[in-house]
Amino acid sequence: MNKQILLAGAAACAALALALPASAQSIDYGSLETLFNEPVTTSATGSPQRASQAPVDMDIISAEDIARSGATDLPTILSRVAGVDIQAWSVGHADVGVRGYDQARSARLLVLINGRQTYLDHYGYTAWSTLPVRLEEIRQIEVVKGPNSALFGFNAVAGVVNIITYNPKFDDGGFASVSGGTGGFGEISLGQTLKLGERFSARLSLGASEEDEWDNTTGSADRLFLDAERLTANVDTVTQLADNLELRVEGGYSHTKQTDIISTYAYVPAKYLTQSIKGTLAWDSKFGLVQASAYQNDLTVKTEISGVPTIYENTISVFSLQDLFKVGAKHTFRVGAEYRKNEMPTAPVRGGVVSYDVASVSGMWNWQVTDALALTAAVRRDELDLKREGNFPPGIPAYGNAFWDRSLNETTYNLGAVWSVTSADTLRATYARGVQLPTLVDLGGLQLVFNTPTFRGVFGGNPTLQPTVVTNFGAGYERDLPQIGGKAGVRLFVQKSEDIKGQPNSAQVDVPATGATLPVFTYLNIGESEMKGVELTAEGAYDNGVRWNANYAYTDVEDSIDAGYNAAVRYAAFAATTPKHRANLNLGWSNQAWSVDGFARYESEKDLYYSGALRPVDAYVTVAGRVARTFGEGLTLALSGQNLLEDGQRQTSGLEAERRVLLSISTDW
Q1: Nearest C-alpha neighbor of 97 from the set 533, 410, 655, 615
Q2: Nearby residues of 187 by Cβ (< 8 Å), 6 or more positions away
Q3: pTM score
Q4: Which residues pair with 282 in a beta bridge?
Q5: What would the mean pLDDT of 142-170 be, rounded to a whole number?
Q6: If exposure means fewest CB atoms within 10 Å of the residue's CB, which of 152, 339, 525, 601 is most exposed?
Q7: Of residues 382, 386, 408, the one with CA closest to residue 156
């Protein structure tokens, strides 16, 4: 049924597209970067602009940064950005947060691949290993900080990670790599761009990897820990249907096996199967640049909860239409509409289906007041309709499916000002309101019943759960420093989160038992939290091939919990679990043949949950590095390593991160 809806929506978008005059063109990032001599983004306002002029706090990781990182996964690469937190729980599972509030299965970060959301809607988190793209096909990664729902879309609460791959229309060639190393690590990647005439371009990528899990240092049962395996395939095609009409179709597949940690901080084995397909029609008409898109994400996860075998299934279909147009030379507008259908069967106890429909409208206005000053305002309205169908297992209170007939209406906005005080000095100010809507699991997708001699109770979702509202103010200053071939900057920010969500815990009953029902443990809104902080950044590059960058982030979180609740019991002790200090230092050197890079990260002490309790995690420093030699024909031999200081290092309250060293041979053409 959902695929029929998807196809019908795509056909409707196509019909609307064909009704308008068109002259569509994809964005040639490479040419624009050469023109501006710095990374370029189109994601914030829809129009190409220098990253330094974007009306949001944004850092861009380039393809060159990724290649020199020596990393084999995206969380490690992201951890080197100022203000980004990473909790590496296993070789395959890491949680990524922006400016604090990083939880197990964090639901505050929007992750996109070419505009398609990739976070998993059932829990709202990102399983990074399931992303179907290979590192070699990523052109750039945009890390946007703070609430940005009005500019970037649904549920962009703490920030956005926007992954942009090479466009086969402009970026020709291919790649191949083979890697092997300690800990049973092995990986192979292959990608090729194809041109069929002047109208059709495609890129196909494939990859597979495996790695032994870190040693079990937790005392948990060994059956909970799986060695990591990953298989991915990705296809990206661009067809010039006419001189003025372009169709881009993308499809992804991943099959992974790994050790996960769930939102109540317990390890579980997990096997993921993901499939996605997206189509986008774009054209320049006399009405502006019009884009119509449709995509569907399908997910199946086989895992367990408290020893109970569990299968999560989730399907989301999204249709959107937007128009980007200019009025005069100084005013750019973007208007859009979106519809999404999201559903999952209840799990692990079957019998019901929880779903919601979301209709959204949005608008953006970018005003180039003067050559030096630009103002941006964006607003988005989401209207969510929740429902449930099916039966209830014995022991659950007899609410009835009508209890899920509920609507949520929320408005988000973003305001930004960028002032180029001089050719070298830039000031930026932002103010935003974001909304973290409850996930399907929060709203009733979780349905777990225990009725044994040792424990009786129901763990389930709560359809009356309120969204978490996040407001944020930021101010920043950046100065170009040509004498060191780089720049330096400072960013200040304050944030407030209202109606924060507490997790269910068997230590606190939420709905008492009756003669006919079991006690209920569920998700509840339990208070608010405030955060303030600062980020310092600097970087430089010299003619002798030496380059460096450094950053430092400080955040201070204060929780205010409602009477009758305990933040620690409800897995919401953000003040304790957010480190106050993080710092990164990256040093490198290269010439035409050699490249040497070193990375050091410091994180101050914090408390993290494990087995139902907060446990101290000491401050630590982790070091990584890469040495590479490039030969003719694009052949590169590289030796790299992660967590080099210790055989096993305590970075979270779970498994100890182990030293891993690998050798890779790669080529591109």
Answers
A1: 533
A2: 72, 177, 178, 179, 180, 207, 208, 209, 210, 664
A3: 0.92
A4: 246, 291
A5: 92
A6: 339
A7: 382
Q: How confident is the model at residue 404 (pLDDT cuts 50, 70, 90)?
A: very high
Mean pLDDT of 550-559: 97
Classify 437 as helix, strand or coil. coil
pLDDT in tens, 84-108: 999 999 999 999 999 999 989 888 8
Look up residue 62 and give its amino acid: S
DSSP character at residue 400: -
Reply yes or no on whether the pLDDT at 44 is more than 90.
no
515 or 442, which is more confident: 442
**CA dihedral of residues 480, 69, 553, 38 (deg, nearest 10):** 20
Q: What is the pLDDT of residues 225-253, one digit of tens each?
A: 999 999 999 999 999 999 889 999 999 99
Strand ranges for 38-166 from DSSP E: 40-41, 49-50, 57-62, 84-88, 94-98, 109-113, 116-117, 138-145, 159-165
User: Under 8 Å CB-to-CB from 602, ≥6 apart: which residues?
Assistant: 581, 582, 583, 584, 619, 620, 621
| Cα separation, 126 vs 321, whole angstroms | 25
The residues that bridge with 41 in the sheet, in sequence order, are 49
Residue 58 and residue 491: Cα distance in Å, rounded?
Answer: 11
Q: Which of these, 446, 476, 479, lies nearest to 461 by C-alpha position? A: 446
DSSP of 464-475: TPPPEEEEEEEE
Q: Is 445 helix (H, G, I), strand (E, B) or coil?
A: helix
